Structure formats: structure tokens, C-alpha cells
UniProtKB/TrEMBL annotation:
<feature type="transmembrane region" description="Helical">
    <location>
        <begin position="92"/>
        <end position="112"/>
    </location>
</feature>
<protein>
    <recommendedName>
        <fullName>Aquaporin</fullName>
    </recommendedName>
</protein>
<keyword id="KW-0677">Repeat</keyword>
<comment type="similarity">
    <text>Belongs to the MIP/aquaporin (TC 1.A.8) family.</text>
</comment>
<dbReference type="InterPro" id="IPR000425">
    <property type="entry name" value="MIP"/>
</dbReference>
<keyword id="KW-0812">Transmembrane</keyword>
<keyword id="KW-0813">Transport</keyword>
<feature type="transmembrane region" description="Helical">
    <location>
        <begin position="59"/>
        <end position="80"/>
    </location>
</feature>
<keyword id="KW-0472">Membrane</keyword>
<dbReference type="Pfam" id="PF00230">
    <property type="entry name" value="MIP"/>
</dbReference>
<dbReference type="GO" id="GO:0015267">
    <property type="term" value="F:channel activity"/>
</dbReference>
<feature type="region of interest" description="Disordered">
    <location>
        <begin position="1"/>
        <end position="40"/>
    </location>
</feature>
<dbReference type="InterPro" id="IPR034294">
    <property type="entry name" value="Aquaporin_transptr"/>
</dbReference>
<dbReference type="GO" id="GO:0016020">
    <property type="term" value="C:membrane"/>
</dbReference>
<dbReference type="InterPro" id="IPR023271">
    <property type="entry name" value="Aquaporin-like"/>
</dbReference>
<keyword id="KW-1133">Transmembrane helix</keyword>
């Protein structure tokens, strides 16, 4: 048994600086990384401005936003601008909600593959 105790004692004194259990390993500085960080990506590339898909996506976004606002505002105007004051002649608040939700559903479905 004495041989093992001596091996343990020699192994324990092998390193001059000992770290308490649960702390970080020795020699780790702020600049010692296992990887190299890539350079930051540019905001946009010049090649992107010459591609048709870039302009097609912009046109699709513009048309979808325009149609969404047009239908939504017309629905709200139809409810608010009802001259007779009866709730039966308009779609009401629930109709406005259905209009907004339906337009978002349809326009996302139509432009998801483009934009």
C-alpha cells in the first residue's frame, strides 16, 4: 500500500499552482479561444441589387402590404361610415377581425414562396 500512497503524493505535487475544485482551468485568458470568429457580415452585397429575385420580393411585399391596408381600411370605413346606424347593415367588429385575419392568411399564402 505504501507504493500507491507515494504515487498519489507525487502526482498531487506535480503542478505548482493548484486550483480549488469547481473553478476554471489554468491558463485561460480572454484571447485564448478554440475557434476563430468570422468577420462581420456586410449589411448588403452589391450583387444582390442586380438580381431579379430581390426586386420580385420587394414588389410582392409592396403589393401585399397595399392590399392588406386597402381591404382593412375599407372594412373599417364600412362599419364606421354606416349612415343608418343599424348594426345589421354592416359586418360589425367581428367582421373587421375576420377581414384582418383573412387578409393576413391569404397574403402570406400568396407571397410566402416569393418573399
Amino acid at each position: 500500500m505504501e507504493g500507491k500512497e507515494e504515487d498519489v503524493r507525487l502526482g498531487a505535487n506535480r503542478y505548482s499552482e493548484r486550483q480549488p475544485i469547481g473553478t476554471a482551468a489554468q491558463g485561460g485568458g480572454a484571447d485564448d479561444k478554440d475557434y476563430k470568429e468570422p468577420p462581420p457580415a456586410p449589411l448588403f452585397e452589391a450583387e444582390e441589387l442586380t438580381s431579379w429575385s430581390f426586386y420580385r420580393a420587394g414588389i410582392a411585399e409592396f403589393l401585399a402590404t397595399f392590399l392588406f391596408l386597402y381591404i382593412s381600411v375599407l372594412t373599417v370605413m364600412g362599419v364606421v361610415g354606416n349612415p343608418s346606424g343599424s348594426k345589421c347593415g354592416t359586418v360589425g367588429i367581428q367582421g373587421i377581425a375576420w377581414s384582418f385575419g383573412g387578409m393576413i392568411f391569404v397574403l402570406v399564402y400568396c407571397t410566402a414562396g416569393i418573399s
